[in-house]
Task: structure prediction
Amino acid sequence: MLKKLSNQISIDDRLVEFTEGETLYQIAQRCPTNDPCSHPIPTLCYDDRLDPVGSCRLCVVEVDGFRNPVASCTTKASPGMVVQTQTDQIEKYRQTLLEMVASENRQIEVDPLRGYASQELSSLIEQYEVRTDRFSGHQSGSSHQTDDNPFILRDYDLCISCYRCVRVCAEQEGDYAINIMNRGFESQITTEFNTILKDSACTFCGQCVQTCPTGALADKKALRAVNDDSELEKTRSVCSYCGVGCSVDLVTKSDRVVAIQPAMDGPANQGALCVKGQFAFDFVHHPDRLKVPLVRNENGRLEESSWEVALDRAAEGFQKAKDTYGRHSVYGVASGRAPIEAAYMMQKFIRAGFGTNYIDNCSRA
Result:
């Protein structure tokens, strides 16, 4: 149970109440957009789902009585704090940090199909009007060209060592499939023994892709559509692969699904998906996918039919089985992927239609 909101701090000359344990960043994020304290604090290493580490230093703020600026994502509030989030000195500091990052990366502008968070760096570069050529020198990170897995592109020339991918793999998935090797400019995101993902503990859930703020880890399947100039659209839906009910965003161009991204605000998954939910969508546009019902003709061959004819044929088959072999000859297995309304109708069909309790569901398997 949360403690009563009885403490206050000052953020950008506005008194704000907070709950014990909240960080300065969390408090600032709660400010309504029309409040003086609503200035967004930039971050690159922060993800709401992960324990904050304060490594990118973009979220630093000034606190009265503190000698140096502090990372707002790791600094917990205490009563009476006076905080400034956007002084000239802080803004200049953030701009310099971004210039250092931008000067090292191979490119800043990347296709949004790379991943959910792939535009974070480029957006900050534009917001702070950052020069990309101010600094030069040795670059860290090198792409893993030999990893031939079909799902995740490991383009480490774009890596900024925020380690969000490593942390989401450990903290959210519990896989620990990727980690950091070496130090300084030799730092590299890698797997055990620096091998390919298929030989690691990776389950290809794609969470590392969706949290990456630069597109260094990217959705290979989505990138197949980068040459399509159609407008990119997202449609909220629910994954149908199991009964969990993960919220997803279907990414489409024209009438084709080109990617599936997890909904970060999904009540059941909160940004997580399994390998099927994120990458197994090719069947949607497969040329062999049935688009109309098929029924057998007098010669036993399948031919296209209307729904009315197909449903009548199915009803006749059920009735014939019941009349010939009795009501216990029909057994129903409901799908765990179906909505609750479909499950209700399935059990009603068996119990009321045939007068038996021969009904189960595939989730038991």
